[in-house]
């Protein structure tokens, strides 16, 4: 698979012509900055000496015209820097968003929004006053050369002052860099902890943990704020010193110039011009010191963006594949959690044909949800492959794969949008497809009962809905636009009896349409419509085969099943099942009970054996009830 070499530097390289144009404007602007000192020198040395009003008018007209051009160019340069910042944002935000999403999937979700904030930091610096100072800084030697041409003594004074100011700028870098970097780390950790706190506020408040969480957050925040304030204090001190030094430098140039005027080595006009030029020469350094905090922040953000895009580059263009028929093949697949080392799944292999329904069961932490993530391409396989229609699901263009895959995760998240927008996966809405998906999921009537029907806004995360309503709308979203492959991870965790029946009918209809379904559930009632069962234990396949074979393979109910809603049965069903179990009991159920503790132990043993013998009969009754639910 080919990939682009994603790099934040690509964003700047694409804007190279804009930077060159800005540098060209800066050259003209800095040349025009010499208009004022030259004008002052001419007024003092020519106009006042010659007492010529015409010369004054001519010089003033030329100077005003050039300064108007200077003002226009300064404004154009400012607008260009704003456009450069915005263009950088537009070019890099999409790959950064994609890289953050990929990092969340493959390396954990820590600092999920930090990359987008880094883009904002770089853009804000580019559109501020700081870059102009950096474009002007290369012209400092030109101004110093002009002062040397006026008089070497004044040039020496100017160079000494410039060296001191540059030293202050370097000191600002040395003092602030480490502190601001550490402050950014602490503030980022505090923000991440605050995000976790808000997402878990219900549990925190219920268990009285809000105060302790706030204390932890404040501790991290204040550590970052303290370092940031310390760096800002030093920058403020150095900025004040730089302003004072600039004024002292201008005073020194005036004093030196006056001394030279007294000995007739230069004119008064040259003295005034030198004072103005030296102020202009050191102005960029002073501005750089003032904007150093923003520069350090932007540089750090830029470095982080480079690392992010280098680690998670955008995939190259892939040929669009045709709609898969629904064949699913898992070839010796293994999975590792993002940021983890130990495999959660090992050696998983199976194949499914279109229209086949397979249940995945197993105890907690056996890897069922991890398998679901592998099947839909959310997590890449650490070894082996998962294929849909013959193509590795993690190699599909995700925009294409998503059209053919439906997925209900264990933790359902809906977007702050309308019901129809959520069902349509935030894309272009086809009303008929939305209604068809809702009907198939058995949620159409429920949606119509909402205040605004399909136009109802459900709030962030679907907070306006109950857990069962969110789960059923998520099922409709998974079924939108007739996918070829559907993975349901605990789709009935929050459903009631009616919801279970609707889900069973939905699975039967998906099977009839030839849609491949993987169902993960702890409830025995969900096994009614499956063709095969895969049992996971400790991340490996413990059993795989036809449903009845797997159910009958064990002599007792699977211990990791949760109690499920009872499907309505005919009055004689339980009795018939019990009779069947009794008929299979070689010991009958009679016999004289023992006495004392031995009788109690014998009764407990008999109850356990009866429950074990009843399991096959229960499986047969479950199948009969499923047929009644679907056909009725």
TrEMBL record:
Subcellular location: Cell membrane
Biased composition regions of type Basic and acidic residues, renumbered to the chain: 605-619
Record membrane topology: Multi-pass membrane protein
Keywords: ATP-binding, Cell membrane, Membrane, Nucleotide-binding, Transmembrane, Transmembrane helix, Transport
Keyword Membrane: yes
Region feature Disordered, mapped onto this chain: 561-619
UniProt GO BP: protein secretion by the type I secretion system
Protein name (Swiss-Prot/TrEMBL): Type I secretion system permease/ATPase
Classification of source organism: Bacteria, Pseudomonadati, Pseudomonadota, Alphaproteobacteria, Futianiales
């Amino acid at each position: 698979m080919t990939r682009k070499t994603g790099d934040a530097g690509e964003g700047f390289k694409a804007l190279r012509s804009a930077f060159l144009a800005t540098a060209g404007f800066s050259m003209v602007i800095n040349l025009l900055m010499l208009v004022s000192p030259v004008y002052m020198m001419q007024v003092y040395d020519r106009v006042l000496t010659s007492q010529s009003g015409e010369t004054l008018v001519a010089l003033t007209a030329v100077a005003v015209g050039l300064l108007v051009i200077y003002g226009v160019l300064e404004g154009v340069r400012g607008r260009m820097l704003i456009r450069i910042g915005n263009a950088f944002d537009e070019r890099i935000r999409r790959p950064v968003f994609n890289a953050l999403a990929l990092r969340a999937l493959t390396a954990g979700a820590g600092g999920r929004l930090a990359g987008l904030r880094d883009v904002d930091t770089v853009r804000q610096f580019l559109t501020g006053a700081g870059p102009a100072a950096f474009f002007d800084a290369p012209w400092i030697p030109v101004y110093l050369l002009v002062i040397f041409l006026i008089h070497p003594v004044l040039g020496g004074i100017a160079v000494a002052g410039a060296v001191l100011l540059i030293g202050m700028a370097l000191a600002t870098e040395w003092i602030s860099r480490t502190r601001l970097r550490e402050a950014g780390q602490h503030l980022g950790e505090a923000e991440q902890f605050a995000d976790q706190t808000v997402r878990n506020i219900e549990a925190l408040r219920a268990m009285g943990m809000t105060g302790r969480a706030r204390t932890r957050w404040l501790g991290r925040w204040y550590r970052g704020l303290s370092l940031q304030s310390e760096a800002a204090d030093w920058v403020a001190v150095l900025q004040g010193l730089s302003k004072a030094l600039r004024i002292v430098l201008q005073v020194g140039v005036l004093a030196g110039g006056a001394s030279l005027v007294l000995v007739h080595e230069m004119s008064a006009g040259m003295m005034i011009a030198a004072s103005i030029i030296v102020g202009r020469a050191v102005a960029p350094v002073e501005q750089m010191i003032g904007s150093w905090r923003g520069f350090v922040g932007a540089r750090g953000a830029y470095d982080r963006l480079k690392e992010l895009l280098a680690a998670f580059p955008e995939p190259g263009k892939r040929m669009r594949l045709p709609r898969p028929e629904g064949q699913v093949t898992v070839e010796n697949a293994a999975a590792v959690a993002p940021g983890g080392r130990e495999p959660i799944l090992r050696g998983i292999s199976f194949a499914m044909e279109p229209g086949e329904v397979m249940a995945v069961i197993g105890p907690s932490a056996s890897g069922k949800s991890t398998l679901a993530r592998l099947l839909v391409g959310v997590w890449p396989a650490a070894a082996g492959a998962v294929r849909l229609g013959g193509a590795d699901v993690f190699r599909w263009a995700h925009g294409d794969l998503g059209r053919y895959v439906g997925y209900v995760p264990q933790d359902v998240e809906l977007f702050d949008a309308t019901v129809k927008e959520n069902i349509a996966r935030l894309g272009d809405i086809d009303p008929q497809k939305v209604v068809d998906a809702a009907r198939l999921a058995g949620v159409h009537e429920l949606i119509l009962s909402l205040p605004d029907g399909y136009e109802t806004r459900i709030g962030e995360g679907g907070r306006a809905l109950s857990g069962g309503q969110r789960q059923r709308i998520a099922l409709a979203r998974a079924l939108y636009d007739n996918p070829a492959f559907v993975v349901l991870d605990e789709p009935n965790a929050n459903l009631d009896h009616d919801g279970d029946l609707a889900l069973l009918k939905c699975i039967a209809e998906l099977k009839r349409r030839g849609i491949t379904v993987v169902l993960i559930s702890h409830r025995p009632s969900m096994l009614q419509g499956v063709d095969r069962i895969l049992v996971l234990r400790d991340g490996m396949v413990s059993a795989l085969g036809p449903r009845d074979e797997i159910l009958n393979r064990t002599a007792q109910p699977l211990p990791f099943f949760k109690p499920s809603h009872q499907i309505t049965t005919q009055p004689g069903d339980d009795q018939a099942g019990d009779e069947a179990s009794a008929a299979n009991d070689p010991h009958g159920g009679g016999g004289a009970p023992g006495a004392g503790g031995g009788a109690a132990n014998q009764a407990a043993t008999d109850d356990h054996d009866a429950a074990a013998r009843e399991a096959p009969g229960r499986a047969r009754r479950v199948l009969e009830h499923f047929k009644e639910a679907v056909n009725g």
